[in-house]
Amino acid sequence: MQFLYGAVQEEARHFAQVRLPALVDVVARGYPGAEVPGLRHPQVRGTAVQQSYDEVEAQLREAVSVVRGSIGRASRAGVRATAEDAQMYLARCQVSIFTAHDAPDSELRQWLMDFDHLVTRALHVQQRLRILAGSWPGVQRADCPVRMVIESAQGRIDGFQRVRYTYLPSTGEVFVEGRVAEALTVALAELLANSIAWSAEHIDVTVQEVQTGLRIVVEDYGIGLTAQQRVEAEQLLSQSTVIDTTNLTERLGFSVIGRLVHEYGFGVDVSAPSSGGGVRAAVMVPARMLRSAPAPPDPLPERRPLPGAAPREHADGPSGPVSAPMTTAQGLPKRRRQQPTSAPQAAPKPVTDALDAHAIVAGLQGLGHAIHTNFPADEGDSHER
């Protein structure tokens, strides 16, 4: 009896220290070649002890299977929702193409602008997906002024007409490092889209010069965040790892921003409410990400008249050395403005080719067919029983 008691104790230690970790390696981690060892003492085989351990092992396998299925469903739902958004915008592009077939030539320019906005929205949706999966935004930009970052973000959302950007040269013409320009644009677009979705009024965007850099503030006057929602948003904004797929269907915008904040080093804060009770989001751009305006390109060499040709008179452009870069009161770089040097203008050539609207429409028909071929209608989802 004493021997059996000792065997049961050793078997319990063997299960906790050897068999259970091996079971986790096999079932949860999926290590190739890993095996779960059997009982240590044959004396307990066929007893209630073995039966209890077998039940624990079965429950662990079932728990891993349930969690894996839940993660799979959440992942598919998140990817499906994102892909469906992209497909929706591309489908709207297709409808817009077919609608433009009979449009008068005077409406072609406006149609192209609307088409470009739809494509931009679709591309932004795809950007969100790759960022959530741990990739970079996929676009490398040159150094650009803050106003271009804001205007680009504004052009990536629906309802962009409701965004009011207060432009000031002292902040709007400060240049942002090209390495982070696209990441800032994506993050700002997410904040604008969130404000547009939860506010029926206009959205105010201002840029403030602070001691440590620039602060871009997005302020809406809609439904504010509750204390719990604010805590959840701050957790997502401070996310430092690839997003857990079980949370992929909730607050995608904050999840995207959190990934960008971790990868690029700027800051986003939503802890303070707006003056109207809505959400006040602040994007902090550190001074190390700000750049001086690029030097203007060298003027074109002066054209010499051909032998025997009469000299042509033209106004001389401003001369003198290029002024030194200017800075703001806080020491931030400002964009230099220069009058362009006048250059001789060639005589305008007579217009021989007119815009062929029929040729453009024919090309758009081919584009519409390509979209229809590569993005077929949804054939429905299969559901597990």
Characterise the protein shown here:
This protein has helices at residues 2-29, 48-99, 108-132, 146-154, 169-172, 178-198, 227-237, 252-264, 357-374, and strands at 144-145, 163-165, 175-176, 203-210, 213-219, 267-269, 280-286, 290-291. With 385 residues, the chain is α+β, with helices and mostly antiparallel strands. It folds into two domains: 2-77; 79-291, Histidine kinase-like ATPase, C-terminal domain (Heat Shock Protein 90, 2-Layer Sandwich). The strands form two sheets. Strands 2-4-5-7-6 form a five-stranded mixed sheet. A three-stranded antiparallel sheet has the order 1-3-8. Helix 2 (48-99) runs antiparallel to helix 9. The radius of gyration is 31 Å and the shape is elongated. Mean pLDDT is 77; it is low at 313-325, 335-355 and 375-385.
User: What's the average pLDDT?
Assistant: 77
Overall morphology: elongated
End-to-end distance: 50 Å
CATH level-1 class of the largest domain: Alpha Beta
User: Which structural category do the helix and sheet elements fall into?
Assistant: alpha+beta
Helix and strand string, N-terminal first? HHHEHEHEHEEHHEEEH
The main sheet comes to: 5 strands, mixed
Mind telling me the C-alpha Rg?
31 Å
The tally of strands reads 8
Which regions contain 5 or more consecutive residues with pLDDT less than 50? 313-325, 335-355, 375-385
CATH fold descriptor of the largest domain: Heat Shock Protein 90
- Can you tell me the CATH superfamily of the largest domain? Histidine kinase-like ATPase, C-terminal domain
CATH architecture of the largest domain: 2-Layer Sandwich
- What share of the residues does DSSP label as strand, in percent? 5-15%
Spatially, the strands of the biggest sheet line up as 2-4-5-7-6
Helix content: 40-55%
Number of helices: 9
